[in-house]
Amino acid sequence: MPLQLIGPVCFNGHMARGKGKSRRRRKDWHARWEAGKDIHEPKRQRLRPPEVKLGEGSFATGQASELDSWQQISGMVTGVFRRGTFVRVDGEELYCGIAKTFRPPEGFEHTSPLAVGDACIVALVPDDLVDGQVELDRNRMDGMILSREPRRTVLARPEPRSDRRRDEYDEEDFLKVIAANMDVLMIVAATHKPALSAGLIERFRIIAERGGLQALLVLNKIDLGEPDAQAWHSVELLDLEVLRVSAAAGLGLPALRDRLAGQRTVLAGASGVGKTTLINAIIPDIDAATNTVRAKDQRGRHTTSQARVYNVPHAQGGLIIDTPGIRELDVGLRIEDLPWYFPEIEAVAPDCKFRDCSHTHEPGCAVQAAVEAGEIPPRRFESYLRMRDTVQ
User: How many Cβ atoms from other residues are within 10 Å of residue 21's Cβ?
Assistant: First the structure.
C-alpha cells in the first residue's frame, strides 16, 4: 500500500507553519458565506495620522490632561534627534520630547513631523517633577512638544520609502524636510580652494525656488583672485543675486550683514568654501569651529555636527542657521525625483505619450510641447536638462 501524507508536512516532520491559520480563515469565510455576508475582507484603513514614537526614558507616557496643566510657550526647533528635540525659547535651548497627542497640521502628513526652524508649542515640565538625582535627571526632558504651526517655506527633498512601508494606493511622495520657515538660502561658494562649482550652485538655487526661499550667492575668498572664467560664466547665466566677500580679509562684510538683517537665513554650500569662517567674521565673539582644506585634494572637512543658530548683529535682527542636514539636499538625488523640483514640468509630465518619458527626445512629449508654446520658461527647462545630466 503506498504511503499517504495527511496534511502539509515539512522536511523536519512538523506541520507546515501557518496552515492552521489558513484553515481557520477558510472556516470563517465559509461561515460568512452561509450567513449571506460579504466574504471579501475590506482593506484596513488608517482612521487617524500615525503617532510619533518616542525613545525610552522621556515623559512620553504623560496623558493629554496632565500636559494641559503645564505652562505652554512657543519656540523654534533647532535640532531633531532620535531620542529628543532641541527647541529655542527666548534664547535658551530646551531638550524636549514629543507628546503622544502630537499630530502634524492637516495636509502635511507626508512630510517630516519636525524640522529645524519649525514653530512649535512646548509644555514646560514643572519643577516639582524633578527629583534632584543627577543619575535620574540625565534623561529628563525640559518640556514636551504639543503641536507645530504650518510651514511658510521648506527646504526639502523627496525620500523613497521601502517596499515594506509603501502603500500601493498611496502615490504621494514623502518629503524629508531639512529646514522650515526660512527666508533666504545663502549659497556660499569660493573663488578657489575648492574650485567654483556652477552645477552645485544651480541645484541649490532650484531647491530654494521649489521651497519658496530667496537664493543668495555669497562668493567667498575673493582675496585669492578671480574664479575660473568658464565656471563663472555658467554661474552668471543663473541670474542670481551675488555678494562678493572675503571672510579672512574682512571684505564685503557690512553689505552682507545689511542683506541678512531681519531675515531667517540657512547656509548651504560645499565643505571648505568657508561657511563657518564667514559666520565668525559676520558675528564677532562666537568662535564657531573651523577646519582647513585638505591639501591632498583641495576639498573641505565638515565641521558642523548639529544645527547652530546665530543672531545677526544688526538693528533689525535676523537669524543665521547652520545645519548639517543641508548636506542631504545633494545626496542620492534620483532621476525620477527631478520633476518634483520643477512644478511646471511635474504638472505637464502626465500628458506625455510615454510614461517613462525623459522629456529630452521622445515623440509626443507634453513637456517639450509646453516649452515650445511658451508655457514653461526655456530657462527652467534648460536647468532641468543640466540637472538631469549631473544625476545620470
Answer: 9
- Which of 142, 71, 154 lies closest to 112, judged by CA? 154
DSSP 329: G
Q: Are 252 and 191 in contact (CB under 8 A)?
A: no
- CATH of range 64-151; options 3.40.50.970, 2.40.50.140, 1.20.58.340, 3.40.50.1010: 2.40.50.140
CA distance 181 to 119: 8
Residue 134, exposed/middle/buried by CB under 10 A (0-12, 13-18, 19+)? exposed
Cα distance between residue 76 and residue 90, in whole Å: 9
Task: Please write the tens of the pLDDT for every residue from 76-119.
Answer: 998 888 778 899 998 888 988 888 878 777 666 667 889 999 99
pLDDT computed for residue 10 by the predictor:
44
How many alpha carbons lie under 13 Å from residue 271 in its C-beta half-sphere?
20
> pLDDT tens digits for 17-73?
445 556 677 777 777 777 776 655 544 444 344 444 433 434 444 455 577 778 999
**For the chain, what's the residue count?**
392
Name the one residue in this structure whose C-alpha cell is 518616542: 54
> Taking a C-beta distance cutoff of 8 angstroms, is the pair 244, 252 a contact?
yes
Q: What is the pLDDT of residues 152-168, one digit of tens each?
A: 999 988 876 554 444 44
Write down the domain spans for the chain: 64-151, 175-330, 335-391
Q: What is the DSSP string of 192-246?
A: TTTTP-HHHHHHHHHHHHHHTPEEEEEEE-GGG-PPPHHHHHHHHTT--EEEE-B
CATH number for the region 335-391 comes to 1.10.40.50
Instruction: Tabulate helix, strand, coil % of the chain (nearest 5).
Output: 30, 20, 50
DSSP 24-68: HHHHHHHHHHHTT---SPPPP---SPPPPP--TTSSTT--HHHHH
> Does domain 175-330 fall into CATH 3.40.720.10?
no
Give the distance, in angstroms, between the CA of residue 92 and the centroid of all CA atoms in the same chain.
Answer: 24
The whole-angstrom separation of Cα 63 and Cα 67 is: 6
